[in-house]
């Protein structure tokens, strides 16, 4: 099973990024999917999740109204659209089911 | 938003047994919280040890087990090995939103 994130990088405060996660060897459409982030050297923070059929999404309070999680089961892909980014959103972002991706670093800095 | 609590640190002797716990500020942890346990070693991505309270991943050694104990989710390690030294995080579901505990640093010494 592989989960491969992409789309991270350096962005200015107030900017946007879209993270993608592609799954392989995995019945993607059966699973809740999550985005989890981690500031280097700190603990894990759950960010958002989405039902297997994509019908419902949930978010941590700090990203509500700014981040949107979505999925495309036909493409076995998970997404995180991040708008109005803040310095405190800087972290490694992981795509997670019961498996973990390798992470994608998002740096928000001027 | 709920607060999830874990022991900040625990130490176990090689070959010994240790139980890590995961409590919720909202009350007793039940099977409905679908507790997950993750292991993270320095410089590595986390990986799942236990999901849905008691289920093991394909890679999870038999010495790890998950349960509910005294109103908390629990991860028990029986016969600790040096390679089990790591940070362990629990994650609880609250009917959609989820919350991580702060992590337990497990030392095998």
Task: Give an overview of the whole structure.
The complex is a heterodimer of chains A (110) and B (109). Chain A is mainly β. Helix content of chain A is 0%, strand content 50%. Chain A contains no helices and ten strands. Chain A has strands at residues 2-6, 9-11, 17-24, 33-38, 44-50, 57-59, 67-72, 77-82, 91-96, 104-108. In chain A, a hairpin with a 4-residue loop joins strand 7 (67-72) and strand 8 (77-82). The model of chain A has no long low-confidence stretch (mean pLDDT 96). With 109 residues, chain B is an all-beta fold. In chain B, a hairpin with a 3-residue loop joins strand 5 and strand 6. The mean pLDDT of chain B is 97. The chains are: A mainly beta (110), B mainly beta (109). At the A-B interface, strand 5 of A face strand 4, strand 5 and strand 10 of B.
Tell me the Rg of chain A in angstroms: 13 Å
Number of strands of chain A: 10
The arrangement of helices and strands of chain B along the chain is EEEEEEEEEEE
Largest interface: A-B, 19 and 19 residues
Strand content of chain B: over 45%
Determine the N-to-C terminus distance of chain B: 36 Å
Structural class of the helices, strands and pairings of chain B?
mainly beta
List the defining traits of the structure above:
heterodimer; A: 110 residues; mainly beta; six-stranded mixed sheet; four-stranded antiparallel sheet; 0% helix; globular; B: 109 residues; seven-stranded mixed sheet; 11 strands; 51% strand
SSE blueprint:
The complex is a heterodimer of chains A (110) and B (109).
Chain A (H helix, E strand, L loop, with lengths): L1 E5 L2 E3 L5 E8 L8 E6 L5 E7 L6 E3 L7 E6 L4 E6 L8 E6 L7 E5 L2
Parallel strand pairs in A: 2-10
Antiparallel strand pairs in A: 1-3, 3-8, 4-5, 4-9, 5-6, 7-8, 9-10
Chain B lengths: L3 E3 L2 E4 L4 E8 L11 E5 L6 E5 L3 E2 L7 E6 L2 E7 L7 E8 L4 E3 L3 E5 L1
Parallel strand pairs in B: 2-11
Antiparallel strand pairs in B: 1-3, 3-8, 4-5, 4-9, 5-6, 7-8, 9-10, 9-11
């Amino acid at each position: 099973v592989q989960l491969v994130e992409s789309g991270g990088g350096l962005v200015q405060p107030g900017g946007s990024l879209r993270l993608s996660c592609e799954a392989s060897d995995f019945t993607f459409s059966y699973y809740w999917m999550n985005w989890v982030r981690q500031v280097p050297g700190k603990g894990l923070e759950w960010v958002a999740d989405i039902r297997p059929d994509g019908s419902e999404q949930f978010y941590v309070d700090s990203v509500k109204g700014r981040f949107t999680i979505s999925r495309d089961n036909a493409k076995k892909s998970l997404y995180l659209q991040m708008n109005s980014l803040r310095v405190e959103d800087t972290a490694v972002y992981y795509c997670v089911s019961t498996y973990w991706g390798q992470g994608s670093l998002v740096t928000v800095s001027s | 938003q709920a607060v999830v609590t874990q022991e900040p640190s625990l130490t176990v002797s090689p070959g010994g047994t240790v139980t890590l716990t995961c409590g919720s500020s909202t009350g007793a942890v039940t099977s409905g919280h679908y507790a997950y346990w993750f292991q993270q070693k320095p410089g590595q991505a986390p990986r799942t040890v236990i999901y849905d309270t008691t289920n093991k991943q394909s890679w999870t050694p038999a010495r790890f087990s998950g349960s509910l104990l005294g109103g908390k989710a629990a991860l028990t390690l029986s016969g600790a090995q040096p390679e089990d030294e790591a940070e362990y995080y629990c994650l609880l579901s609250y009917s959609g939103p989820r919350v991580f505990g702060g992590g337990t640093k497990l030392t095998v010494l």
